[in-house]
Design a protein that fits this description.
The chain has a single domain, classed as 2-Layer Sandwich (Alpha-Beta Plaits), CATH 3.30.70. 17% of the residues lie in helices and 38% in strands. It is built from four helices and nine strands. The longest helix is centred in the middle third of the chain and has 14 residues.
């Protein structure tokens, strides 16, 4: 059983990084389904349910800007940590003064979306008193209060997002309403965790029609 959710999110900046350009960050043209799920989970999450993105409404014009920011060029190695825990090596650390470097990021400016989604129940993870009505009521109350587990962000934590329940008519009217079709190309859909030893990315072709991307109706490629 599914329950519909409509959330409007917006912020000054956003960066939904293309995985093929991980060194110099370059954002997709709009929010990815996986980022949208992450935002909803930041508002409310329970192991007995799973969010599914249905449609994304792009309300503001797609605009980019370029910034430079400090990032670390290295990261802690899992194998090094395992060795140190077993007593075979020194504790790993990152010297921020030595490893810091400036990198260019191409990011989105003045973003605003309406996310249409639903959640599916995961019976094996539900308690005796858990049900669709309880979950939907909790989500709605948190949206009305502006409550969240952590501040939702637009791709990276540096770009926090504001959010609220969307009460208007759908499709939401925005800059691209009545603009026809625009192919945004292949976009990251999410990660497939079916095999923990072989986690693989999933992609879909994002086609925006009059400002609306039909995520649920798109084919997913692995």
């Amino acid at each position: 059983m599914a329950y519909g959710i409509r959330v409007e999110v917006w912020g000054e900046y956003g960066c939904f990084t293309r995985p093929e350009l991980s060194v110099e960050r370059f954002s997709y043209d709009c929010i990815t389904p996986s980022a949208a799920v992450g935002m909803l989970e930041g508002i409310w999450w329970h192991p007995g349910m799973a969010y599914r993105i249905d449609r994304i409404h792009v309300l503001n014009p797609i605009q980019f800007t370029t910034i430079r920011r400090n990032e670390l060029k290295s990261k802690a190695s899992a194998s090094t940590i395992r060795s140190s825990v077993s007593g075979k090596g020194a504790l790993p650390y990152i010297n921020t003064k030595r490893d810091i470097q400036q990198r260019t990021s191409t990011i989105l400016v003045d973003v605003r979306y309406v996310i249409e989604a639903h959640f599916d129940l995961v019976p094996d993870e539900m308690g005796e008193r858990d049900n669709t009505g309880k979950f939907s009521a909790l989500i709605q109350r948190r949206l009305e209060r502006g409550a969240c587990f952590h501040t939702p962000y637009l791709g990276t934590r540096e770009f926090p997002a504001s959010f609220r329940s969307y009460e208007g008519e759908l499709p939401a009217r925005g800059y691209y309403s009545d603009s026809g079709e625009r192919d945004l190309g292949l976009m990251l859909y999410g990660m497939d965790y079916t095999d923990p030893q072989d986690i693989t990315p999933m992609f879909y072709r994002a086609v925006m029609r009059d400002g609306v991307i039909d995520v649920a109706g798109s084919e997913v490629y692995r």
